[in-house]
Amino acid sequence: MTAFTITWTVKEDEAGLLREFLRVHKKISKSALADIKFTGGELLVNGEPSTVRKHVRTGDEVEVRFPPEEVSSHMDPVPMPLDILYEDEHLLIVNKPAGLPTIPSRYQTKGSLAQGVLSYYEQEGVHSTFHAVNRLDKDTSGLLMIAKHRFAHSLFSQQQKVKAINRTYLAGLKGLFKSLSGTVDAPIGRNEDSLVERMVTEQGQKAVTHYSVVKEIEGNTLVSLQLETGRTHQIRVHMSHIGHPLLGDDLYGGPIDLIARQALHSWKVSFFHPFEEKLMNVDAPLPQDLQQLFGNMREQ
Fold first, then answer.
1. What pLDDT is stored for residue 296 in this prediction?
2. Do 231 and 188 meet the contact criterion of CB atoms below 8 Å apart?
3. Are 89 and 148 in contact (CB under 8 A)?
4. For the residues 149-170, what does the mean pLDDT come to?
5. Which residues on neighbouring strands pair with residue 16, listed in sequence order?
6. Which one, of 19, 90, 6, lies nearest residue 51 by Cα?
7. Most exposed among 81, 149, 191, 232, judged by the fewest C-beta atoms under 10 Å?
C-alpha cells in the first residue's frame, strides 16, 4: 500500500538536529516519529535515508514517508454521493446531509459518511482511512472536516485543543429571545435515565455556548451559535436549558410540526491550514428542508 509522503526545504531558522526540525518546526509528535521508525516509514535528507540525529542545514530537502495506513476492518466502503466543498491532498471538507451518521453504529452498520468517504478514497486512489476532525449528530447537517492522513489529523486535533478551529452553527429555535446575544455557561453530563440524552448538571463537564439572534420568524428565532467546548449534544442541551429548544428536536422538548429533524446546521468554519500556510474559510449553504422552513416563515 502506498504511504503518504511530505517534503520540506529547511529554512535558515530551522537548521539543526533533524529531530528538532520535525518535532518543533513541523509539529510531528514523538509517537509519530516512533511509528515512522518502527512500522514502515522513512526519513530522508537530500534523498538519503537518515536518522533523527542527523544535522540539517539551510536549503536541505527533508522527506518524510509515513507508514502505510490500514482501513478499519469493521468499515466497508459504501458508494454514495458526497457534497465536497473543499479538497486537497491533506484535507476533505464535506457538507453532510441530515439523516446520515458520521460513523457506523451497532444500530446502523451500513450507510455512514465514513463509509462513503472510504468508497471515494478507493475511487480516487487515496490510501488512507477515515480521520474525522469533527463529528456531527446523525440529524445535524453541514460542514465536516476529514483529515486524509494521520499527520494532518494530528495537526488539526492540536488546533482544536487550543480552539484555533472556529465553527459557526445556524439553528431554528422555539420562541423569541429577550436579548440579541448571550452566553450559556452550564456543565453538561449524562442523563442516567437515558442511553443517549444529556442534561445540565453540576456533576457534568464545563460547556460554553455563545448565541446571536439572526432573525425572528413567526414566533420562533433563527440564531447563529459558536462553541467554546464540544460536549455531546451541547447546542441542543443548552438551548433547551434556557427555554428555547431546537425546532424538530423532540428529545429535548422541541416541537416537531415544522421540520422532521432538529433544525441545526454546521454553517461556517475558519482555520489556519498548516500545509497551505494560509487562513481558510468555508461555508455550507442551508439544505432544502431548512431553506423551506426559514423561507416559508414571515420575518418579523
1. 43
2. yes
3. yes
4. 93
5. 56
6. 19
7. 81
Please say whether the beta carbons of 53 and 7 come within 8 A. no
Asked if residue 112 lies in contact with residue 122, where contact means CB atoms within 8 angstroms, the answer is no
Residue type (1 letter), 30: K
Q: Which of 13, 35, 76, 137 is catalytic?
A: 137
| DSSP class per residue in 42-70 | EEEETTEE--TTSEE-TT-EEEEEPPPP-
pLDDT tens-digit series, residues 264-273: 999 999 999 9
- Total-model pTM: 0.88
CA–CA distance, 142 with 106 (Å, rounded to integer): 24
Query: Is 137 one of the annotated active-site residues of the chain?
Result: yes
Q: In the prediction, which pLDDT does 299 show?
A: 40
> Going by C-beta distance under 8 Å and a sequence separation of 6 or more, which residues neighbour residue 1?
68, 69, 70, 127
Q: At what angle do helices 30-38 and 150-161 cross, to 10 degrees?
A: 170
Matching residue, cell 448565541: 211
Return the residue matching grid coordinates 476492518: 73
